[in-house]
Amino acid sequence: MLGGIQAHAPALSALSSPTINSYKRLHGEGLSPDTANWGEDNRYTYLRIPAERGKATRVELRAGDASANPYLLLAAMLHAASDGITRGLEPQPVGAALPRTLNESLAALRTDATLAAAFGQEFIDIYSAIKQREVDRFALAVTDWEWDLLPQPRVASPCLARHVLQSWAYTTHCVPSEGGGHGRPGL
Predict the structure, then answer these.
(1) DSSP for residue 24
(2) How far is residue 71 CA from its own chain's centroid?
(3) Which member of 12, 44, 114, 161 has the greatest number of CB atoms within 10 A?
(4) CA 8 to CA 133: how far, in whole Å?
């Protein structure tokens, strides 16, 4: 069971971490895993089996976040676990590296035959297309952090700097500052 979830972890990431921001916390520091490892009562692992036994015995997927659809994620986990049981996959103490971006996890989802058979290729294609559009739109956006990296021009207006940064000819519009003149570019 665990071996199947580990084997499908890259594709599962598209469902457990379905936003661009999801990957900003999956860096292996703190309580977030960066590999599909497992352990008993270890909160640093991808899959955790708490010490409690009996009715409290469970497996926790530690990489999912609040933006995940719990129904899709649980269904995907069950199909991955079933595949692991069917193929006799043994859990590995050190799993493969998890995707570092939504784009990487979507690529894994598109090529995962088990999840495509479980959900249907049409669902995989539509889900991937919607999420790919999010990735593509984010790539076009200039964040405040990126804007703040640029040295502020002394003579040229901030609109010119924004134009250079975004390479959007004729579409640079600035939000006027309260004191008049050129303000910070409208994002």
Answers:
(1) G
(2) 17
(3) 12
(4) 23
CA distance 26 to 71: 22
Which amino acid is it at 141? A
Fill in the DSSP letter of residue 179. Answer: T
Amino acid occupying residue 172? T
Provide CB contacts within 8 A for 21, sequence distance 6+.
67
User: Sign of torsion, CA 29 71 126 109?
Assistant: positive
Q: What is the pTM of this model?
A: 0.75
pLDDT of residue 176: 46
158 CB neighbour count, 10 Å cutoff: 19
**Mean pLDDT, the chain cut into blocks of 10 residues (187 residues total):** 93 96 79 86 82 84 89 96 96 90 97 97 98 94 83 59 52 45 46
Contact 126, 153 (CB under 8 A): no
Residue-level pLDDT at 169: 38
Burial of 148 (0-12, 13-18, 19+ CB in 10 A): exposed
Pick from 43, 7, 29: nearest CA to 115:
7
How crowded is the C-beta side of 30, counted as CA atoms within 13 Å? Answer: 7
